[in-house]
Write a structure and sequence with these properties.
Blueprint lengths: L5 H7 L5 E6 H14 L4 E7 L2 H5 L5 E4 L2 H4 L8 H10 L1 H8 L4 E7 L3 H17 L2 E8 L8 H17 L4 E4 L11 H24 L8 H11 L2 E9 L3 H10 L7 E13 L5 H15 L4 E8 L6 E11 L3 H5 L14
Parallel strand pairs: 1-2, 1-4, 2-3, 4-5, 5-6, 8-9
Antiparallel strand pairs: 7-10, 8-10
């Protein structure tokens, strides 16, 4: 007999439903940064072919793959070797991460390990019923002068785009706006942006809302929306139009949308968030999308007043090949989402 007591309900969500997994060197470094910024309730993992890099990571769960063939020395940019390595270790990886409902997979594209693992594990996790969120760090344009690195990037993106669902592709080329800062600081700023994406999505589905958005809602939206991305922003509650501008423009993402995009939007504010703020934000977002096929709205109002409103939005209807096409474009002040 099914136990319908409150204790049984609580047990259903007692364990964390979210995980972040760093794939390869860049992915592992990004997870380390995210942990330093704080992600309560999110489990962390690092997977790599490089034993030395993995050994130096202060991440609780670490998995070395390909030890027999690659000897723990990395893939040397060989995407096929990394693919064989992860295929050999797939049962162990899935045993450790497939119980989570949402799994963020972080990887730098261009090298062998991250480029191989990101699309492969996204596909394997889908088979288990988990919802993978691939986060791809695209290389600087000068790195693409290497035919091998460009091939790794394009093949990985082609596989990810063909899957549909989430694809968060962050362009390192857009970091040139911070060219005066030390390089480690620039990468930390990029990873802080990723932290905002991860924490806003977790917060949106983990805590109840008056107009609720849960994991099932996101899966339903993704099933109809095709290739989708995620944007977020925070702004004073009196400036909803600027909040939408911030979320759509101040981003490291680079996309073009189809003629009929869609969005799942969630607003989070205090007791002083008025209906006028709600309506203005929604109308501003609708104008940004042009002629949206569908907009689903959720909102959460806290008991206490808050100066800041947070916007989290799943934007669907990215054009096929839009991410790969962006590799050859020069950096711009705004992105394709903002241009609509």
């Amino acid at each position: 007999m099914l136990d319908s007591s409150p204790d049984a309900w609580a047990a259903l969500h007692a364990d964390p439903s979210f995980a972040i997994v760093g794939l390869g060197g860049a992915g592992g470094d990004a997870v380390r940064d995210l942990l330093s910024l704080g992600l309560p309730g999110v489990r962390s993992f690092a997977i790599n072919t490089d034993a030395r890099h993995l050994d130096g990571m202060d991440i609780p769960q670490r998995i070395l793959i390909g030890a027999r063939e690659l000897k723990g020395r990395g893939s040397g940019g060989n995407r096929l070797a990394a693919r064989r390595a992860v295929e050999d270790n797939t049962p162990e990886i899935l045993r450790r991460v497939s119980d989570f409902e949402i799994v963020f997979l972080l990887a730098g594209l261009g090298g062998g390990t991250g480029s191989a693992l990101l699309p492969y594990l996204a596909q394997e996790l889908r088979k288990t019923g988990a919802m993978p969120v691939p986060v791809a760090f695209l290389p600087f344009h000068h790195e693409l002068a290497s035919p091998g690195r460009r091939e790794n990037v394009e093949e990985s993106l082609e596989e990810l785009e063909a899957m549909g669902g989430f694809l968060l592709a962050l362009s390192n080329q857009k970091l040139l706006r911070f060219r005066g800062l030390p390089f480690p600081r620039v990468l930390h700023l990029r990873n802080a942006y990723v932290h905002g994406l991860v924490s806003s999505l977790v917060d949106m589905v983990e805590y109840p809302s008056q107009m609720n958005v849960d994991i099932a809602s996101i899966k339903t939206h993704l099933g109809a929306a095709g290739l989708s991305t995620l944007v977020w922003g925070e702004r004073h509650y009196s400036e909803p139009e600027r909040l939408v501008e911030q979320a759509m423009r101040e981003t490291l993402l680079d996309y073009e949308l189809t003629e009929r995009p869609s969005a799942l939007i969630h607003m989070d504010g205090g007791s002083n968030m008025t209906l006028d703020t709600f309506e203005r934000l929604l109308e501003s977002f609708r104008r940004r999308l042009g002629d949206p096929r569908d907009i689903v709205v959720g909102s959460r109002t806290h008991e206490e007043p808050r100066e800041v409103v947070r916007l989290t939005a799943v934007v669907g209807g990215l054009k096929p090949q839009s991410v790969r096409d962006a590799l050859g474009r020069p950096p711009s002040a705004s992105n394709a989402l903002a241009a609509r």
